[in-house]
Model the fold of this input.
Amino acid sequence: MNFQSTSSLGTHEIEFNVKDIVVNKTGQNLDTVKIIFAAHNPQTYTVLLNGIHYNIFVNNQTVSSGDIGAESLIDIMNEAPEFPIISNDTVTFKNVQTIHTNEIKNDILNTITAGKACFTVNGTYFYRQEARLTATGGGNEFQLKFPSGCK
Done:
């Protein structure tokens, strides 16, 4: 199930999607939340993804938050890993967070465990690109719904 947010990179766009969200019980008051993102680069040059900061909500209540990589815009001396997305390619990013279920309202937890949750995912991804002898970068906000049919 793919939902996309397109964000402007110059005159082109990058497609940013939530591929899956999986919640698993791991203990009496603990669950894990696994999120899988996909970023597609339709451009003719490589884009370097520095990081993703995201929040996951159900019925306006925060279920989980996390980071993949770093929040770095353009930093020549950046030591954080960058994730290259070559032209016309898609890269998958996964992250798992442990949540304390006693911090989530029972009705929302029941909706999630029954597989009937409509997730809203928002956040920012940070990138930089080098094309035509220039380097640019920035951060683009996104808001996505998961799974299909969510309103």
